[in-house]
Design brief:
Chain lengths: 327, 260
């Protein structure tokens, strides 16, 4: 028996007209100074029950915002696409109750998550299944201002069945296609290499989902390694990956992707990741980890001291530049 | 035989998988063994093999093994550091010849499960889900599955089809709307290399690795494997292949360092 539609209940906003109206009323096209602190950005733009997307793939993750979400005890968030450590800490902290999953519950080569497994088994999270490509296309559909895109993944699989995709017939060729609904996150959070105070941003290295996610998000928070002068943006406009009119907040957070990788700048911090994976096996361990690194730090600068300070950061920088060996 | 080379089963797997890849073709790679196989192919018979990582890294000169598919090593000296869409749309448009897959369960038609063991609503074991697997299995021309050969893994039925193989058999992929002419191509394990029988789209033994018997393969397979009249023996790794893996590709033994 063929499945004509997935049984997963749609989590995200998906209506382009509703989004157009929201954009018309809420997004400034002007050049405004959007700089603020991590605390302010999360307080102002992340509400309980929001659908959040954060750039990730073990690389360029807006970690300062995620830690702050835990500090501010945000609740009932929906999370888009998934993640590794970044997602896991939000689940462990009880901030997430819905999940559009393409990948979640593992740490790539570092193994499987015990936190995620428990959250699934005790029914803490409603999950919709997707794949990496179909999630990317859901963001792309939203970035394009569309309600869906027809794609060729998912067909014939149980992943389709547990998604909220629908099968459609192409009006031109008669082919069967999977229609994947647009995903308009309430908040998209992206860590970039540099941007100006208005939010014109440059990314070095792979972009993964992030440019479409910035275009798709209703509210967009950028954290950046450094804030640069607008003249530097205007002297190389072809280097702009995200233009300012998509952006609502700009926060300067050096080393803001730690313990994840920041291309050309610092490599991932396996030591902290392994410490978390070990600690996360028990609720007491998770609490101890959070007490130490999240609640134990007022802000990201303090956190950087806790994870090993300048010495550790220099090591991670050298690793990224192949001037040091993993060890 | 004199001077017989010592190697681990996982090295045999990496070598066998690398030999499936072809020069001037393209391959979608994930972390782990597939990456070693692809790099090994580039360093041996397929120098112009185009490697694509789903986070957007296209044809890097991988300096040390990446720990993730979005890691900066996946676009070191690459021809492009693009986006997820750049990578997967190339596959959807037919530019990606090979794709690597793995899974906790595999059935005779090459359907793969990387979502859960047990019923989806009440799973016994929870895995990370599709990631890029469904996309690779749906859209690459030919997929190569690498897995340890265990009876519970090679099972009669998968609990969840995360990634489609030949689904229920001949014609099923096309009927479901998947691209014509695409699908599972080879299965490389620590015991053998398998392909698919044309008329049934069922998994078929092609060769057993040195020292492995057909009976051993059958015993470790949970479904009825097609056994042709003539089953070859996989050529063992050469000294040069082993040197490349051990000294150049994975000198720290990240993926091939263990006992398996």
């Amino acid at each position: 028996m063929e499945n004509l539609e997935g049984i997963g209940k749609l989590i995200s906003k998906t209506d382009p007209d509703e989004n157009r109206q929201w954009v018309r009323e809420n997004k400034s096209r002007g050049l405004e100074d959007k700089t603020m602190s991590v605390k302010e950005a999360v307080d102002k733009f992340v509400k309980d029950g929001d659908y959040i997307f954060f750039g990730f793939f073990g690389t360029r993750v807006p970690m300062s915002l995620l830690y702050e979400i835990i500090r501010q005890k945000k609740k009932n968030l929906s999370v888009g696409r998934g993640g590794l450590y970044d997602l896991d800490i939000l689940v462990a902290a009880g901030c997430v109750n819905k999940f559009d999953r393409a990948y979640g519950g593992g740490f790539e080569v570092l193994g499987l998550s015990s936190v995620y497994r428990k959250a699934i088994l005790n029914g803490q999270m409603q999950v919709n299944e997707w794949s990496n490509a179909t999630y990317a296309w859901r963001l792309k559909a939203a970035a394009m201002g569309l309600p869906f895109l027809p794609v060729r993944s998912l067909m014939g699989s149980d992943t389709f069945k547990q998604s909220s995709a629908k099968m459609i017939k192409c009006p031109f060729t008669g082919m069967k296609l999977a229609a994947v609904p647009a995903c308009y996150p309430d908040v998209s959070m992206i860590h970039v290499h540099r941007c100006d105070k208005y939010g014109n941003a440059q990314i070095d290295g792979v972009k993964v989902f992030d440019i479409d996610a910035a275009k798709a998000g209703r509210k967009v928070i950028l954290t950046t390694e450094e804030i640069i002068d607008t003249e530097a943006i205007r002297s190389k406009p072809w280097r702009t990956d995200i233009p300012h009119y998509y952006v609502d907040a700009v926060v300067e957070v050096p080393y803001g992707s730690h313990p994840s990788n920041m291309p050309q700048m610092y490599y991932m911090d396996e030591e902290i990741l392994k410490e978390y994976i070990q600690q996360s096996k028990t609720p007491e361990g998770v609490q101890a980890f959070f007490d130490k690194y999240v609640f134990g730090a007022e802000d990201f600068d303090e956190y950087l001291k806790l994870i090993g300070g300048t010495k550790k950061l220099r090591y991670l920088r050298n690793l990224e530049r192949f001037q040091e060996k993993r060890g | 035989m004199t001077n017989e080379l010592q190697y681990k089963p996982v090295e045999m797997m990496a070598v066998a998988a690398s030999r499936v890849l072809e020069d001037k073709k393209s391959v979608f790679v994930g972390t782990g063994l597939p990456m070693i196989a692809a790099i090994l192919a580039q360093k041996t018979h397929a120098p112009e093999l185009l490697m694509a990582f789903e986070a957007g890294g296209i044809n890097p000169k991988v300096p040390t093994l990446p720990l993730g598919v979005g890691d900066s090593r996946t676009f070191y000296k690459a021809v492009m550091a693009g986006s997820m869409c750049d990578a997967v749309e190339a596959a959807q448009a037919g530019y990606i010849d090979f794709g690597f897959l793995g899974g906790a369960q595999i059935d005779r038609f090459g359907n793969l499960n990387s979502t859960c063991i047990g019923p989806y609503e009440k799973p016994k074991v929870v895995f990370p889900g599709s990631g890029g697997a469904n996309d690779i299995g749906s859209m690459c021309w030919r997929t190569i599955i690498t897995a340890r050969h265990e009876k519970r893994r090679f099972s009669e039925k998968v609990d969840f089809i995360t990634t489609p193989g030949y689904l229920t058999g001949p014609g099923a992929r096309e009927a479901a709307g998947l691209p014509k002419g695409s699908g599972p191509y080879r299965v490389v394990t620590d015991l053998a290399i398998m392909g698919y029988e044309e008329k049934t789209k069922s998994m078929m033994l092609l060769s057993v690795h040195p020292g492995v018997t057909v009976a051993q393969v059958v015993e470790n397979t949970g479904f009825k494997l097609v056994i042709p009249e003539k089953v070859g023996t996989t050529a063992p790794p050469t000294a040069e292949e082993l040197r490349l893996i051990r000294e150049e590709i994975d000198p720290n033994g990240i993926y091939v360092g263990g006992s398996e």
